[in-house]
Amino acid sequence: MHRPPILIPDSLRTLFQVVAMVLLLSLLQQNGCRCYQYKVGDLDCWGLPPPSDPLLYSSWSQNHHFSLGDSLLFLYPPSQDSVIQVTERAFNSCGLEDPIMTLRDGNSLFNLSAPGYYYFTSGVAGHCEKNQKLAIAIPSANGTFFPPAADFATAPTGSQSYPIVFGPASAQGPSTAPAAVVRAPAAMGSILVAAAAALLLGSSLL
Question: Which is more confident, 126 or 163?
Fold first, then answer.
């Protein structure tokens, strides 16, 4: 004895197809999104570079490829230092007046949310002149890459015996991996399973 076929409304079939497409699109978007968190200079402290490596921050930025969605982590004692975002002109002249943004909590996370150049320096007078500053280049979302930030830093002049805040910022070789990585493999796997289930269910109802 054969059962009569179950008639599924077209609206329900369409719903399953839409759900499957949404899940697959979410999978594709997450698969292309890998955001990194970089500890500035690969150091435990954002401070004056050591006399042995006065261009530490310039070299560090040029040895990393930053992308949209990445973030910079500045660690420093808030009672002794700070981070300010400045214009290119202020970066070159070490002008601390009228910064774009001031960070002074000692554990500052800056999100690189738009393409272009970002310029940072210490908010402490005299530190920028001693090369405690950082320039970052971010390519656009379509893959257009901005030229590497120019090496604006120059070797410090005068005495090399200036103090290093919060202990010496010992030079380290360029790291091959950022300080922290944010990935979503578990989420992508769940979305893939859900999308496959929706497609199978939708096909069985057709």
Answer: 126
Shared domain for 80 and 164, answered yes or no, is: yes
Do 147 and 60 lie in one domain? The reply is yes
Nearest to 131 by CA among 17, 52, 189: 52
Whether 111 and 121 share a structural domain = yes
CB-CB neighbours of 200 under 10 Å: 12
Contact criterion met (CB below 8 Å) for 83 and 165: no
Q: Strand order in 180-182's β-sheet? A: 107-111, 71-75, 35-39, 180-182
| 93 in the same domain as 2 | no
pLDDT of 26 higher than 90:
no
Domain count, the chain: 2
Q: Are 149 and 195 members of one domain?
A: no
Task: Tell me, yes or no, if the pTM score tops 0.70.
Answer: no
Domain that holds residue 71: 35-182
CA atoms of 173 and 30, how far apart (whole Å): 32
Residue type at 76 in one-letter notation? Y
pLDDT band at 141 (very low <50, low <70, confident <90, very high): confident
Collapsing DSSP to helix, strand or coil, 102 comes out as strand
Over the stretch 36-74, which tens digit does the pLDDT of each residue have? 999 999 998 999 999 999 999 999 999 999 999 999 999
